[in-house]
Specification:
Layout: E1 2-13, E2 20-31, E3 35-39, H1 46-53, E4 61-66, E5 69-70, H2 76-86, E6 87-90, H3 102-111, H4 119-128, H5 144-156, E7 162-166, H6 174-191, E8 194-198, H7 202-205, E9 210-215, E10 218-219, E11 225-226
Parallel strand pairs: 3-8, 3-9, 6-7, 7-8
Antiparallel strand pairs: 1-2, 1-4, 4-5, 9-10, 9-11
């Protein structure tokens, strides 16, 4: 069963001679529980695609169906709830709140809804991500790998249907990068989530169920390669 379908997806920034065409008509279908890697050169439209799927930005043209709901019909409040409740974001630059502890940063998506985290699941994430002894630390007291682990736990704490990861290992050394990918891949598969990951690293992309190549805002012909 598909969790995402896009049709004729276009994103244009600016107007007339100053227009930048980030996406030029992307048709995409992603199955529930699938791990899709998106690769392509800088400026090809990878991050734009992720932002549209996550409801961070709106498409200029085309449709995005997520769990059979059309995102273009959502108002700003509905988009905010969609991002908070149905999506888990993992960014290259962590985006942790500097005045919150590790545990508070992880729990933030639920706190914003006035909810408390499932304590058993929180403890499991802290354990699996080796953050138990850092739970009361602030982000500036963490290494880069620990900050990324915290961001990962935050993306997973509410068990979202869809996890969107934008170069999650881009600022890490190779050892930390491998550990983060192994944990992310294992966790989403255990919970049955869908993972869409942007990467420049072909070794990381090779771990996905499918690889999609995007260039100049287009999915290139014959570029979707199954790894199943």
């Amino acid at each position: 069963m598909s969790i995402i379908k896009t049709k004729g997806l276009v994103k244009t920034y600016g107007k007339k001679d100053a227009a930048v065409h980030a996406l030029r008509g992307v048709d995409l279908e992603v199955q529930s529980g699938e791990f899709l890697a998106v690769i392509g050169p800088s400026g090809s439209g990878k991050s734009t695609l992720l932002h549209l799927l996550g409801g961070v930005d709106r498409a200029t043209e085309g449709s995005i169906l997520v769990e059979d709901k059309e995102l273009s019909g959502f108002n700003e409040k509905q988009l905010s709830l969609y991002r908070r409740r149905r999506i888990g974001f993992v960014f290259q630059y962590y985006n942790l709140v500097p005045v919150l502890t590790v545990e508070e940063n992880i729990s933030l998506p639920l706190m914003l809804d006035g909810l408390k985290p499932d304590q058993e699941w929180l403890e499991e994430l802290l354990t699996r991500l080796n953050l138990q002894d850092k739970r009361h630390s602030l982000p500036n007291q963490l290494s880069g790998g620990q900050q990324q682990r915290t961001a990962m736990a935050r993306a997973l704490i509410h068990r979202p249907a869809l996890v969107l990861a934008d170069e999650p290992t881009g600022n890490l050394d190779s050892q930390n990068g491998r550990e983060i990918m192994a944990l992310l891949r294992d966790t989403v598969r255990r919970v049955g989530q869908t993972l869409i990951l942007i990467t420049h690293d072909h070794n990381i992309a090779a771990q996905a169920d499918r690889i999609m190549v995007i260039e100049d805002g287009l999915i290139r012909p014959m570029s979707v390669v199954s790894r199943v």
